[in-house]
Amino acid sequence: MTKELITQLEAKGHKVVEVAHDAVEAIRNWLVKEKGIKNSFDSWHGGKSVKKRIQKVASGLKRDEGKTWFPELSDKGGNKCRDTFWIETFHMVILVYAAKKINFGDDTYVMRIQLAALDWNENVDREVSSLQFHQYARNPDRMAPTRILRPKSFNFRKMIWDNFFAKL
What we know:
Layout: H1 2-11, E1 18-21, H2 25-35, E2 38-41, H3 43-59, H4 70-74, H5 85-97, H6 106-123, E3 128-135, E4 143-149, H7 155-167
């Protein structure tokens, strides 16, 4: 059917550049090798093959069937936990300069990420000016201290401004 359709379209003067179809190897070979047409599988068949491959990898070897994976995973010697506080905080600074809901061009996006890095580097270790104690409504006996940081500095903006005008 696909071969007939393409042949008829070419007979009427249409140039077929790409064909999306079921995952039939014979059709793929005919399209690519004989006709020079770009071959694409439809999304359902592509997803189906990915699912099969993931299941194959996830099921492991036949000799390990029925064994739990826990001993395999726990003997790697990497029992140390990592604190993600710093990366999460840096990500929040990035979102100030490059919000997710706005689509920036590549150059603008890179510039905004670099501005976020400059801001982060300048203000990452701000000193604590004082502690403020908050009382929680659900637990009035608990007074939780919150660190009040010194105001952010934006000296990097002046540095960028000066460098820009020095290059003119």
